[in-house]
């Protein structure tokens, strides 16, 4: 089976003012979501093949409720500056069928139809690793139907995410689920003293980089 990177989420402060820094850099913000019943909300930036999501808890009681609690979204967000990995990494399958890249369990959030589920990695309790999940309805943003289309052409000229690399203090002790994602060649991991992600665009042919730390644990290379 073939898999593609669908999107990355980064846990942020409420309201994700960090998005303003991305906009100042030249990215164009797309539509935002409030996930009814899950307790989360976001601000989003879309590229031709994938999406970057800044995510926060807007309703702690929903996030801690029985249907949502197993995702550990509440703990991941609460402890994002205190040892928890603040990221979520989402894949989509490019072949027909329902094969999942990693050992998983079915999560049915209230905002999805009852017949649809998100497959969450069985390492979801391992808060030193990203939340791993795979969605059956994922597709490239440049293939979205007209009614869901998003702005894709920013002033920097970034088009496709071609590298996703996680820097992690826990990189030397990975779960089987995390290793399975690495084996899809959609994510790289290396050891570092703090959590952050490098996103490479368009094979990084221009040799440029901007680092958004400390406001946001993200660097962009192109």
TL;DR of this structure?
By secondary structure, this protein is mainly beta. The chain has four helices and 13 strands.
Give structural notes:
This protein is mainly beta. It has helices spanning about 20-25, 60-65, 75-80, 175-185; strands at about 5-10, 35, 40-45, 50-55, 85-95, 105, 120, 130-135, 160-170, 190, 195-200, 210, 220. The strands form two sheets. Strands 2-3-4-1-5-8-7-6 form an eight-stranded mixed β-sheet. The longest helix is centred in the first third of the chain and has 8 residues, at about 20-25. The protein is globular. The mean pLDDT is about 95.
Which key features would you list for this structure?
mainly beta; 8-stranded mixed sheet; 4 helices; 5-stranded mixed sheet; 222 residues
Structural Rg:
16 Å
Through-space gap between termini: 29 Å
Strand order of the largest sheet: 2-3-4-1-5-8-7-6
Tell me the number of helical segments per DSSP (H or I, 4 or more residues long).
Answer: 4
Instruction: Report the portion of residues in β strands.
Output: 25-35%
Q: Which secondary-structure class do the elements indicate?
A: mainly beta
The major pleated sheet works out as: 8 strands, mixed
Mean pLDDT: 96
Write the layout of secondary structure elements.
Layout: E1 3-11, H1 18-25, E2 34-35, E3 40-46, E4 51-57, H2 60-63, H3 73-78, E5 87-93, E6 104-107, E7 118-121, E8 131-134, E9 161-168, H4 176-183, E10 188-191, E11 196-201, E12 209-211, E13 218-221
Parallel strand pairs: 1-4, 5-8, 9-10, 11-13
Antiparallel strand pairs: 1-5, 2-3, 3-4, 6-7, 7-8, 9-11, 12-13
């Amino acid at each position: 089976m073939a898999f593609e990177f669908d999107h990355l989420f980064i846990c942020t402060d409420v309201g994700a003012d960090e998005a303003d820094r991305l906009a100042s850099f030249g990215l164009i913000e797309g539509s935002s979501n409030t996930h009814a019943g899950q307790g989360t909300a976001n601000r989003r930036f879309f590229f031709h093949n994938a999406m970057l999501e800044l995510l926060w808890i807007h309703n702690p009681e929903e996030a801690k409720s029985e249907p949502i609690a197993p995702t550990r979204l509440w703990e991941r967000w609460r402890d994002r500056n205190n040892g928890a990995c603040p990221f979520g990494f989402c894949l989509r399958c490019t072949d027909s069928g329902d094969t999942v890249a990693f050992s998983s369990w079915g999560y049915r959030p209230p905002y999805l139809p009852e017949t649809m589920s998100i497959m969450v990695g069985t390492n979801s309790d391992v808060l030193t690793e990203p939340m791993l999940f795979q969605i059956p309805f994922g597709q490239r943003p440049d293939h979205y139907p007209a009614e869901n289309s998003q702005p894709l052409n920013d002033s920097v000229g970034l088009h496709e995410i071609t590298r996703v690399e996680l820097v992690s203090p826990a990189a030397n002790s990975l779960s089987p689920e995390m290793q399975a994602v690495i084996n899809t060649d959609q994510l790289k991991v290396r050891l570092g003293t703090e959590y952050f992600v490098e996103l490479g665009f368009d094979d990084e042919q221009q040799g440029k980089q901007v680092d958004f730390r400390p406001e946001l644990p993200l660097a962009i290379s192109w």
